[in-house]
Amino acid sequence: MKKVYFLSDAHLGSRAIEHGRMQERRLVNFLDSIKHQAEAVYLLGDLFDFWFEFRTVVPKGYTRFLGKISELTDMGVEVHFFIGNHDIWCGDYLTQECGVIMHTQPLTTEIFGKEFFLAHGDGLGDPDPKFKLLRSMFHNRTLQRLFAAIHPRWSMDLGLTWAKHSRMKRVDGKEPDYMGENKEFLVLFSKQYLKEHPDINYFIYGHRHIMLDLMLSSSARVTILGDWISYFSYAVFDGENLLLDQYIEGEDLNNE
Predict the structure, then answer these.
(1) Which of 10, 82, 206, 222 could form a disulfide with 103 if both were Cys (CB 3.0 to 4.6 A apart)?
(2) What angle in degrees, to the nearest 10, is found between the helix axes of 129-139 and 141-148?
(3) How far apart are CA 227 and CA 147, in angstroms?
(4) In 52-93, which ranges are E strands?
(5) pLDDT band at 171 (very low <50, low <70, confident <90, very high)
(6) Residue 90 to residue 120: CA distance in whole angstroms
(7) Residue-wise burial string across 88-106, b where 16 or more C-beta atoms lie within 10 A, e elsewhere
(8) Centroid of chain to Cα 188
(9) Contact (Cβ atoms closer than 8 angstroms) between residue 26 and residue 250
(10) Helices 63-74 and 20-34, interaxial angle, to 10°?
(11) Does the pLDDT of residue 237 top 90, yes or no?
C-alpha cells in the first residue's frame, strides 16, 4: 500500500538561511526518495520564503524543487500545495506548469478512511491583533494589485527583505519553543474545532516550526510538522499509523 506524506515550512530562497542551496537539495532528495511509494504529498505552506506571481513573471530560482514536484505529478502522485503566510500570492503557475492542486483555505479530507483537517496554521486561534491586521492586508486583492504594479526588480527585493527581517527579529531567528498545550494556539484551536467536528482523526499543521505529536482524545491527535530549516521533518501516513520523523541525508525511504 502506498503512503501519504506531509511537510511544510522550507522557506526556500530565504536570505536568513545560510545553507539555502543545500537545504533545497536535501528537500529534493527527500521527495526523490519517496516518489515510488507516495500516493500523495501535502505541502502545508511556506515552501517559499516569498513568492509573488506577476501576470507573465515568476520568481527566479527553485528549479530543482519545481522540477521534482513536476516529476511527481507527471508520475501520477498527487501534490497538494497550501499557501502559507509567506507564499500567499500564488497564481496559476504552480497548477499549470507543475500540476499541483492548490489550496487557499484549510481542507478537511478523508485519507485511507480517516478524517484529516489540514492547514498551514496561520490565522487559526492566534489572537495577536497586529498579525491579524497584517494577514488581512496580505490577503487584500486591491493591495495585491497595487503591489503587482511595482517592477519585480524592487518588489521581489522588498518581499525577501521583509521576510528576512521578520525571521531575524526572533531570538536566533527561530520560533519560540513549545509553549504547552494550554498556550499553543493551534492546539487550542484544534480542541475547540474537535468539539464541533468530532469525526476528525488528525489535525496537521505547519507554521509554528516545532515538531509536535499530541493526542487530543482516544481517536484524535494534532501534529505540527516542524520545518525544513532546522528539523528536516515530515509526517507519513500508511493507512494505519501516522509517523512524525526527520529525514537523514542519504536515507533510503523506499525501505520505510
Answers:
(1) 82
(2) 60
(3) 28
(4) 78-82
(5) low
(6) 14
(7) bbbeebbeeebbbeebeeb
(8) 20
(9) no
(10) 10
(11) yes
Phi–psi pair at 23, nearest 5 degrees: -60, -45
Name the pairing type of β-strands 233-237 and 3-7: antiparallel
Nearest to 233 by CA among 255, 205, 214: 205
Q: What are phi and psi of 185, to 5 degrees?
A: -60, -40
List b or e across 192-225, with b for residues whose CB sees 16 or more CB atoms inside 10 angstroms.
ebbeeeeebbbbbbbbbbbbbebebeeebbbbbb
Q: How far apart are CA 53 and CA 59, in angstroms?
A: 7
C-alpha cell at 15: 536570505
d(CA 75, CA 37): 11
What value does the CA radius of gyration of the chain take, rounded to a whole number of Å?
Answer: 18
Q: Give the pLDDT confidence of 138-166 residue by residue, as tens digits.
A: 667 776 676 666 777 777 777 777 667 77
Q: How confident is the model at residue 95 (pLDDT cuts 50, 70, 90)?
A: very high
Q: Give dist(CA 177, CA 167) in Å, integer.
A: 15
* Residue 50 CB coordination number (10 Å): 25
Distance CA 133, CA 175 (A): 20
Rounded-to-10 torsion of CA 140, 142, 147, 149? 160
User: What is the four-CA torsion angle of 190, 193, 195, 196, rounded to 10 degrees?
Assistant: -160
